[in-house]
Specification:
Elements (H helix, E strand, L loop, with lengths): L3 E9 L3 E6 L2 E6 L13 E11 L2 E7 L2 H11 L6 H8 L4 H9 L3 H4 L7 H11 L8 H4 L11 H12 L4 H12 L5 H14 L1
Parallel strand pairs: 3-5
Antiparallel strand pairs: 1-2, 1-4, 2-3, 4-5
Helix pairs in contact: 1-2, 7-8, 7-9, 8-9
Length: about 200
């Protein structure tokens, strides 16, 4: 198995990142490729998981080793495939996923694509007591990309990333957005106004 790759980010698409490692381009499937936008043309280390099927071999990429460990655990759950596991792990709140499993919070888990009540229950049955201990740093919240204040704010931040804004730009205006409550549309409009000021 390829543990990790260190190279230059040369291309980003909706679901993938291309990493140039000494002249060889590796296509890595990532839950949120745009988190690498600020590292474009820079050297980074991406932790990988190689998934093999009869008709396909894919490399999945992760920002942190702990995210990959959670991904591997989710793959062991009946009804969860690589795409579903990736969506859960790279939601921007992996520590909340761990907490939901440990606290048997089915409602939180069912908000992810393809996860119904039956699958959420299966995740809890299979993984409760098995995720916190293998990811102490993740459980401590060291790798959380944002503190999810509310769903509207999180949706607005994701929309900004989709529009092409990089993390350093978003971080500059995030305090102004957190300072006042509002809808997703309100946050987006406010964010764009703040971007113009910058």
């Amino acid at each position: 198995m390829i543990e990790m790759l260190t190279g230059k980010v040369v291309h980003i698409e909706l679901e993938t990142v291309t990493l140039d490692v000494h002249g060889v381009g590796y296509l890595l499937h990532c839950g949120n490729p745009y988190r690498y936008q600020e590292f474009l043309e820079e050297t980074v280390t991406i932790y990988t998981y190689q998934h093999v099927r009869e008709d396909m071999i894919r490399l999945y990429g992760f920002f942190h080793r702990e995210e990959r460990r959670l991904f591997e655990k989710l793959l062991q759950v009946s009804g969860i495939g690589p795409k579903g596991a990736l969506a859960i792990v790279c939601s921007g709140q992996p520590t909340s996923v761990v907490e939901a499993i440990e606290e048997e919070n089915e409602t939180f888990l069912t908000k992810f694509p393809g996860v119904g009540k039956k699958t959420a229950r299966q995740i809890i049955l299979d993984l409760k007591g098995k995720v916190g201990d293998i990811m102490p740093t993740l459980a401590e919240g060291l790798f959380r990309t944002h503190e999810p204040e509310n769903d509207e704010l999180e949706e607005a931040l994701e929309a900004l990333r989709a529009l092409g804004y990089v993390e350093r730009e978003i971080k500059k205006i995030e305090p102004a957005l957190k300072a006042q409550p509002g809808s997703t549309d309100h946050y987006i409009k406010l964010a764009l106004q703040e971007m113009l000021k910058k």
